[in-house]
Queue: 2 jobs
Job 1
Amino acid sequence: FSSQELTRHYLDRIQRLDNQFNSFISVTEERAMADAAAADQRIQSGNAAPLTGIPIAHKDIFCTQGIRTSAGSRMLDNFIAPYESTVTANLAAAGTVLLGKTNMDEFAMGSSNENSYYGAVKNPWDTAAIAGGSSGGSAAAVAARLTPAATGTDTGGSIRQPASHCGITGIKPTYGRVSRWGMIAYASSLDQAGPMARTSEDAALLLQAMAGLDPKDSTSVDQPVEDYSARLNDSLDGLRIGIPREFFADGLDSGVEQCIRDAIAELEKLGARVTEISLPNSQLSVPAYYVIAPAEASSNLSRFDGVRYGYRCDNPTDLEDLYTRSRGEGFGAEVKRRILVGSYALSAGYYDAYYIQAQKIRRLIKNDFVSAFGQVDVIVGPTAPTPAFNLGEKSDDPVAMYLSDIYTLSTNLAGLPGMSIPAGQSAGRPVGLQLIGNYFSEARLLNIAHRFQ
Ligand code: GLN
């Protein structure tokens, strides 16, 4: 079948089914059909690459030229991006077909996708459950087969945790592996984009197209991109797996734990050798992250002032009123909370006590990983402590919400790659197995995931 037929199939599914999940903010039907027609021509002329004509959806945090890019916020509800992000440009150049832009927590702040101006995303496995966040729209859309794949971003777990809750595969690459140009900034020292897909094989193809040095992002890394598909079938014989004791402590759901233990036994059957390790400072990742990320966010979000672009309040009386009401009306509650926390942590008199202290903890967390990777090749554990919780269950309790990120945050603080793959169910809801690798070991993670799947 042609790309046009394939694209029509997914557009029809979105139209028929997405009212149940709310996974898309914008559906770009015309653009999709035009992309598909161009792809079909390339296929006919014998110039097809592996992703030519494959439909994809992008998290609405990536600027897409001429298309609304909202970041899940009222602030950017009217924002038509005037330029294209490197990630979406690379995927378009690889031949993908853009179906639309997916729902997300506002400015990627959240773990449940309940912080979106466009409403919560519902989990396709059980619509009473959250899809996870902040890339919940991408995860739900892939799980519901509304798109074969999607992009996500992960600042503290936002690719891995929704992938886990929706029973799909997602990888957050090493910090710097993928360009952040044109990706609306949340916490710049932690943000990283990656693919969300059904299988590791698909994720490998997508990451291949996304990754690489970009002169427009000074933190992107000048290191050749490996051929991720070539090593998918490598043997796991002798692979040294580390199981961090701290990831199996209080708060871990017993059904999740059972799935993870079964997965580890399966990896042993494939030839892996398992050792228990310790990441002694990992318990400090929640407080350190929830100082550093809001601090960076408070600075990044200062650009939304009602003057240049985005939401502007009606009839401002003076400049102060313009700023105050544009930001007051344009941002949601969680975003405001983080701007306040972040500004406080960065303010004179508190900077040393909070921000500097958090940066020191960040270094300790990184050092834990450096010493662990002296002993093992990969670290394995749960992605999230529980399966998807119910919509509304934690929305009044930010601290309970933040604790659901306990296993994912340390990876971002250290800049390491992390992946979540399906590993069974607890109470009828999907469970994700997390793989954490050393810097630039994406090929190895994809290989382990592929052998496991
Ligand atoms: N849940 C975390 C937060 O709210 C992580 C979000 C993310 O990775 N973008 O900050």
Job 2
Amino acid sequence: MSHSDQLFARAAEHIPGGVNSPVRAFAGVGGTPRFIRSAQGAWITDEDGQRYIDYVGSWGPMILGHQHPNVIAALQDQLTRGVSFGAPTAGEIEMAELVCELLPAMDSVRMVNSGTEATMTALRLARGITGRDAIVKFAGCYHGHADSLLVNAGSGALTLGVPSSPGVPADLAQHTLTLDYNDSAAVEALFAERGQDIAAIIVEPVAGNMNCVLPQPGFLQTLRKVCDDSGALLIFDEVMTGFRVALGGAQAHFGITPDLTTLGKIIGGGLPVGALGGKRDYMNALAPVGSVYQAGTLSGNPLAMQAGLATLHYLREHQPHAALAATTQRLVEGIAAAAEKTGLNCPAVNVGGMFGVYPGHVSAPTNLDEVKRGDVALYQRFFHAMLDRGVYLAPSAFEAGFVSLAHTDADIDATLAAAAESFMAIQA
Ligand code: PLP
């Protein structure tokens, strides 16, 4: 029995399912999750001493790689001064100034502790500002686990929101309208009928929680237009894409200005954090200026601010996104080519350092229905074949992958060699 096996059994005694976030349990791929002891650069090491090239990167935050010296130094410095005060700090101002500089759609930002809090607050704000209750989301987009957002009305035709988790009141879920990602015609039809009831559209501008699905040309523009015409707010959930697909996030990459933006992951440099921001008029509706309430004991936590600032400063100074995109493209094209050599189709996509691979699909999916039509069992076999060869991919066919600045050419070569062997093995 491996140490990970033992730890997983022990964890299950006092932690539901043995994990503190469901996807970590390997339920999507089978087998025992690897318990990670340490990480350095692009590599993670498990409790059995096995090393893996890491394409999860803590689900996105670790864009500089693990244990980046600037982040560690910033944390060490803060540790000598205190870890939490519950009072304002200069670091929070520095963070707000930097974020507003990097994302010009914002001139005011509120720090919170997770992406979930950011999107939950953004919705409350949009509802408070517009005085409307309905919100629009897209099937397969994940915006954290706030009640209004844990709703998937099913893909295809619009239906009224149905809770997708027990515990979400139907009375609340009915205000969440779900459409198919990339279905501009459905968006227009819904707004023609109910535009005046809708407080906001919330969207992942590149969807990263149903594997990786790109917005089709015109889709994000349609969202902008229907919001302009109806007075609904457009919320870009950039918890994953922010500072990853471009320094200025997906809004810079695609040239669309949202009304509100939610952030998380990279902005905390690996510590728990989230943020929401937008134009001052909107943000001033939040307490203590306005009456939309939001608060947090640990919000703007000094350690999280310093880890995030070190990360963002590095990105601003080094402008690495073009190189990161090129590395990621080499990775996904190499994986697709390795699959083809064994007669298997494996469409692959990337935007900046975020990617999706689809073993067995005919073409890259454009919505959740198409993602689901894939061969999940094949992904599971590919995942384990790669894991056996020292490559740690997302333990689910429905998650995006992430490349960091610490992934070297040699790491990519080693991954592609592992992919070639893995495709051979699973085809055999
Ligand atoms: N929004 C998006 C796009 C996400 O990918 C996630 C988490 O993966 C969240 C929100 C929720 O963030 P958190 O897990 O920090 O609550």
